[in-house]
Amino acid sequence: MSEIIEPLRGMNDVLPDEARWWHRLERVVREVFAAYGYREIRVPLLERTALFKRAIGEYTDIVEKEMFSFDDRDGASLTLRPEATASIVRAAITNGLLHNQRHRLFTLGPMFRGERPQKGRYRQFHQVDVEALGYGGPDVDAELILMSARIWRLLGIGRVSLELNSLGTPEARAGYREVLRGYFAAHESTLDADSRRRLGGNPLRILDSKNPDLAGLIAAAPLLTDSLDPASREHFDGLRARLDAAGVAYTVNPRLVRGLDYYSRTVFEWVTDALGSQNALCSGGRYDGLVEQLGGEPTPAIGWALGMDRVVLLMQELGTPAPAEPPQAYVVLAGAAAAARGLGLAEQLRDALPWLRIETDLGGGSFKAQFRRADRSGALIAVVLGEDELARDVAAIKPLRHDGEQLDCPFADLPACLARLLGGPSVDAAAAARQDRDP
Ligand code: ATP
Ligand code: MG
Predict the structure, then answer these.
(1) Do 367 and 295 belong together in one domain?
(2) pLDDT tens track for 181-212
(3) Same domain? 345 vs 242
(4) How far is C-alpha 285 from the geometric centre of its chain's CA atoms?
(5) Which ligand lies nearest the alpha carbon of 127?
(6) 366 and 279 within one domain
(7) Is the Cβ–Cβ distance between 183 and 222 less than 8 Å?
(8) For position 249, which CATH number holds?
(9) Pocket mutation for ligand 1, best pick of 64, 278, 311, 313 (most atoms within 8 Å of C-beta)
(10) Do residue 247 and residue 268 come from a single domain?
(11) What is the pLDDT of residues 62-109, one digit of tens each?
(12) CA-CA distance, 98 to 292, in Å (whole number)?
């Protein structure tokens, strides 16, 4: 036997038994985006490194140490996307989506960061990402937050809370940066190496440090809220008024600065107390300067990203059900003639009943072996075809999960028979529904 090739650290397989929680999450977020008029955009996994450097900022955890970058054959530096905002803004610019237009967009998929893997923190992880491009008011900020709150509700997830802050304008922030620089410079000897480097580059990033030794120093640092400009203050009050009116609870956390450089004004984070230290579930903020910074026309914008891996963990932790979808029927085939008909018969049933999940036995073998597989599949009934049934143009239907008579059903009546037994829409209704869906 050859040696097994191990998977990469921090890159997980989602096995079929676990996929159903992912499906439930994906279904809910797609429903919510449809309900609010957000449209899907899909962007590449790979972009030029310069995009993320310029968008996310040099003095961020992501750009300093987390990016998966490599040189292409012609020497261009490429990076696996660590987040989606930069790519979506790039796509909006390069596809001309922002000429006198506004867009409410979402995407979902894998992101890559070279972090130390632990529960809830991986190197390939997955985000749902939403971006509203061209919207400047606090109304859209509130809408994005309402959308995330609705996702928690539909998933039955309690134990989440919302933290909110305003970072003000870049100008106001520049003033605050100098205040902070003075403060941390006075305590330079207590800083760690990361923070010392950021002191010269961007001292705001020190507030984002996860080093527990710095917690006290950070807690005592001057507050950004005190240097907020009047327009940003008004924007923030507008957002709070809308959240209050909609009954969304939050706490203002003046320490919330978020790990990316491109934010301005509104920033927020949904956190949970049920997942230990990987407590951030969904974070976002306004980035009014980013489009211009990436070469587009000045365009206000805001977005959030939800960590799907963590939300799936939380759903499992909180016992959120996610239905398994076993086949409803399992086709058992005895004899060469029946085996030759089996796949075709299942095709006809799928044609007639688009809702039907029917699995055909593959590989043959004894009746006993096939019934064992039928049972293990979780199907409710077996559709049995043997020589005797074939000779009479019928299939035998045998209940697998409850006591009941085995019954013979003529081939022509099989769809109606399955619809009745499985409680699905009848043949005509199913055909009409399909017409509706795939005209
Ligand atoms: P954290 O503080 O936990 O590192 P972050 O500020 O880096 O999070 P964002 O860049 O805002 O996170 O990403 C949005 C969301 O994506 C986070 O709230 C989190 O749920 C999720 N996330 C971020 N990094 C990872 C990761 N390495 N593994 C799993 N989920 C992640
Ligand atoms: Mg991080």
Answers:
(1) no
(2) 999 999 999 999 989 988 888 888 888 788 89
(3) no
(4) 17
(5) 1
(6) no
(7) yes
(8) 3.30.930.10
(9) 278
(10) yes
(11) 998 999 999 999 999 999 999 999 999 999 999 999 999 999 999 999
(12) 11
- Angstrom distance (rounded) from CA 338 to CA 361: 11
Among candidate residues 317, 352, 385, the one where a domain is terminated: 317
Distance 147 CA to ligand 2 centre (A): 23
Decide if 258 contacts 271 (C-beta within 8 A). no
Q: How confident is the model at residue 430 (pLDDT cuts 50, 70, 90)?
A: low
Return the amino acid letter for 129. Answer: D
Query: Which atom number of ligand 1 is nearest to the Cα of residue 279?
Result: 3
Q: What tokens were used for 44?
A: 């590449």
- Contacts with 433 (C-beta within 8 Å, 6 or more apart), sequence order: 354, 425
How many separate domains does the chain show?
2
Residues 347 and 302 in one domain: no
Under a CB-based contact definition with an 8 Å cutoff, are residues 38 and 105 in contact?
yes
> Closest ligand 1 atom, CA of 83?
10
Q: What is the DSSP string of 376-407?
A: HHT-SEEEEE-HHHHHTTEEEEEESSS----E
Query: Are residues 312 and 338 both part of a single domain?
Result: no
Q: Which of 340, 342, 177 is nearest to 261 (CA)?
A: 177
Same domain? 39 vs 140: yes
Same domain, 163 and 65: yes
Residues lining ligand 1, Cβ inside 6 A: 83, 113, 115, 120-122, 125, 127, 259, 278, 280-283, 305, 307, 309-310
Q: Is the pLDDT of residue 438 over 80?
A: no
Residue 434's CB is within 10 A of a number of other CB atoms, namely 15
Please report, for the domain that includes residue 428, its CATH number: 3.40.50.800
Indicate whether 220 belongs to any domain. Answer: no
List the domain range (segments joined by +) for residue 158.
16-169+229-317
Supply the pTM of this predicted model: 0.90
First to last CA, the chain: 52
Cα(256) to centroid of ligand 1, in Å? 14
pLDDT for residue 259: 60
Cα atoms in the 13 Å half-sphere on the side-chain side of 79: 24
Q: Is 205 part of a structural domain of the chain?
A: no
For residue 297, the CA-to-ligand 1 centroid distance in Å is: 29
| Amino acid found at 10 | G
**Which ligand is nearest to the Cα of residue 283, counting in written order?**
1
Q: Is residue 190 part of a domain?
A: no
